[in-house]
Amino acid sequence: MVENLFQNYYLSSFIAVTVLATFATRIIPFVFFERHTEHPLIKHLGRYLPAAVMALLAIVFLQRSATWSLPVIGLDALIPGALVVLVHLWRRNALLSIAAGTLPYMAIQQAGLF
Fold first, then answer.
1. At the N or C end, where does the chain have fewer CB atoms within 10 A?
2. Model's pTM, two decimal places?
3. Are 84 and 95 in contact (CB under 8 A)?
4. Backbone dihedral angles phi then psi of residue 38, each to the nearest 5 degrees
5. C-alpha angle with apex 97: 70 to 23, nearest 5 degrees?
6. Which residues contact 66 (CB under 8 A, 6 or more apart)?
7. Per-residue pLDDT tens for 76-104?
């Protein structure tokens, strides 16, 4: 009984600390940089950093997720990747684009199609 209570307390404390740490890392940049939003460096980062991060994620996804021994190299990752690009160009909605790539990728992986 006491051991179970300690485990619950430990788990609750771990979750609380994790939530606080995550919240702090999300809010700190807004607190420190609120007066510098017009700075040229901040504007430059705001304009180009999202595209750079997306390009990096796409490269890492293709490198680590694709099966490179297929007759058409990387087809299991290229199809969902192409769907992400097409849906994003069509709707300009990041959440829809992510779903449009994730669902086919997981279906391909689970069904073992390639």
1. N
2. 0.59
3. no
4. -95, 0
5. 110
6. 73, 74, 75, 76, 77, 78
7. 899 999 999 999 999 988 899 989 999 99
